[in-house]
Design a protein that fits this description.
There is one protein chain. This protein is an alpha+beta fold and about 120 residues long. It has a 6-stranded mixed β-sheet with strand order 1-2-3-6-4-5, with helices on one face. Helix 1 packs parallel to helix 2. The chain contains 2 helices and 6 strands, in the order βββαβαββ.
Length: about 120
Amino acid sequence: MQVIASSKAPKALGPYSQAILVGGTLYMSGQIAINRLTGEFVQSSIEAETEQIMHNIEAVLEEAGYHLQNVVKTTIFATDIKDFEAINGVYAKYFKANPPARSFVQVAALPKGARVEIEAVAYK
């Protein structure tokens, strides 16, 4: 088991790791739209939040030596199911061919007032 910590992604908000690598499987904690450079939460639009999350996911994947094409499963948590199409629009730009399995769940609330959080599992 190896802890993965990328300086190119925001630090964990609590007692957890950005990701854990076990064998060839990378388990990533959920990412919200925190800009690592500024420490600010991106809230201008649901699309901007999703875009920042995808950048954060890419940074953690890169730290572990993985890429988006290694992602086999994602879970999207959103505070409003009405944002489904907008989130999908951004998400689809990152997973153009052979997208991973995915769940999309509406939740009551997310950390820091986030409207979306995405976690991922990657394998190689």
